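Submission sheet (multi-component)
Chains listed below:
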Amino acid sequence: MPEPYLQTAIDEARRGLESGGVPIGSVLVHRGEIIGRGHNQRQQRGSAILHGEMDALENAGRLPAEVYRESVLYTTLSPCAMCSGAILLYGIPRVVVGENHTFMGEEALLRSRGVEVDVVDDPTCRQMMTQFITEHPEIWNEDIGEP
Amino acid sequence: MPEPYLQTAIDEARRGLESGGVPIGSVLVHRGEIIGRGHNQRQQRGSAILHGEMDALENAGRLPAEVYRESVLYTTLSPCAMCSGAILLYGIPRVVVGENHTFMGEEALLRSRGVEVDVVDDPTCRQMMTQFITEHPEIWNEDIGEP
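Outcome: structure written.
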């Protein structure tokens, strides 16, 4: 069983999948309390920017810098350049990643800027993404800016 | 006078200012046609992720990778890590920046990844941001994740 916060991110990914979307979920945790959660909204809301992590950050609402700097972001998939950039903008010091086999994000950039990146390699995260990419390659490519 | 696309980004910044927000605007231009425009929405929509560039990308809607790769993003202010990450995610090859005196974004990172970054140093862009930061330092600091 994944740890509880990652499990909540997985629950978000599954909600996304069940509503016809890309199965990536994310949770922002401040001092042990979930303050934001969300999932990829490309299909559901026609969004080009609401990746799972961005949706969690947006749902957390406006926060002072101090809160981000004491928070951990959980995400089912290795964060892309946009989501990694948001992590850097807000100085989130730690990211827990469900898996990075189906997509390798900007983990090296994050680490080079001092962010702790822990990759869990969770089988449920991998399975959901592997199946989605197989069934909907065109949506997935659009989501990561690939032709 | 700034070039027309930058002027449209400045118009967006001014709309943002007049509606009580951070005066940063952006325009996405594909083969000479404006396909998305927007401005910072922190104050107006309580958003943590709708910087000017992100708002322009969101308003452009879902696009195939090919369109981004033939587009130019105009922004009144040097793009932060999040917006630069979005530029990298979508492979936007060129960014025109109004000014980078009031805030230096991730121009070096963008250039290191092959993005052309042209800084105009437009006096209107500088003046709007200088005045806003002086009058609302707490909002500005929140917008860039500073305490």
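Remark: Chain A has a mean pLDDT of 98.
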